[in-house]
# Entry
Amino acid sequence: MIQVRELCKSFDGFPALRGLNIRVPKGAVYGLVGPNGAGKSTLIRHAAGIYRQDSGEVLVGGEPVYENPAVKARIAYIPDDIFYYGGASIRDMQQLYASMIPSFSAERFEKLAAAFGELRPEQSMRRLSKGMQKQAAFWIALSCCPEVILLDEPVDGLDPVMRRQVWSLLLQDVAERGTTVLVSSHNLRELEDVCDHVGIMDRGRMLLERPLSELQENMVKIQLALPDERELPADLEILHETRTGRLRQLILRGSAEELTDRLAECEPFFLDVLPLSLEEIFIYELGGAEHEIRNILL
Amino acid sequence: MITINYSDARPIYEKVKDSLRQLMLSGVLPPDSRLPSVRELAMQLSINPNTIQRAYRELEQEGSIVSVPGKGSFVAAGGAARAAKEAELREKLAALVQEFDALGVSREALVSMIKEEER
# Structure
């Protein structure tokens, strides 16, 4: 649904995106993760048609997005800082979007009012807290019945109950209407539940993109202790190793079963396979890209 | 109805599968009763529908549930959920026995340990 090829963008000579590729299938919930300054927001703004790329291609539903109102009408974008006209109420903003977006559904807007119980349409956007503004943005965005939803740090500022509420509504849309969601977040615990695809970005490039299940099945944490005379097989792809005496903790690429079988040949005293969380995968994948956590003593 | 334990590091589809199976075993979901739809469960748990779908697919493969196109998924009669759970427990037991072996605890001692375990 979203396809970006060899996207480059510089700001004042600083290359924010350097030949980035991404493919978000229709109906996917795609989690975009990466360290600060990786270019996540820049990518999302390109997909929303706000930025014009220096080079490369940005397609949504097979068509270029930039200066293409027909495509943009099918996209909902919720930025980190919500836009509203000074003095506008929620109702004013809703009417603005209703006038521009053909798929806007007044019926859905009424129904969704129940989900955002604390908000009333006549409230002024300016007077709302950051979290409440975000709720208002979700209210209007979901009423637009978009085909693509772009979310930049969406749950930032939302309380835990509202976070679940918002995800529950979004996932219902995904299940029912095949809505495609591209979401950037640092909350990896949450992404793990809601995403089925993950892309890890680093310094303007896509480090890797995979279905989440594949990502989790291709990396394992193994704790083992080997007899002194035994060595690990030489061809293991070790991403990280820590040793405390005989006990080793390895982060390995490969499937759990295959690695257990291989390591069993070394006759370990002890072998334990642990699943990795998305947070750990993120840290170890980036660890290879010089993002190791530095132990700095202050 | 279903709760997911977040401190458990297993993949989410496995956790969903497990809690559904638990509901079948405890009789909350008796044979032939209808399971919540993928959409309902995705909404309720705020979990990706594809993840739920995968849990359902695996439950269907092990024979615990039956999917009827257009109607939904139903708990299978014949106790496949029970058999699957038993197989899982056996695997755990095998691992446990191995650990006892490594400690040098004899099988006889293990058996008497099991017998002593209060019912």
